[in-house]
Design goal:
By secondary structure, this protein is mostly helical. The chain has 2 helices and no strands.
Length: 46
């Protein structure tokens, strides 16, 4: 089952709640990824 299929099975209320949280999670995951890559780069230098 794809993500979209699973998402479409949610109720409208659940979909609305997901949309509210999705943007902060997306920006969080992007910044976390960048920080993780920076940490890995630092570890390679050491």
């Amino acid at each position: 089952m794809s993500f979209n299929d699973a998402f479409n099975h949610l109720s409208q209320q659940q979909q609305n709640e997901y949309e509210i949280f999705r943007e902060p999670l997306r920006t969080l995951s992007i910044s976390s990824l960048a920080e993780t890559e920076a940490l890995l780069d630092n570890a390679r230098i050491c």
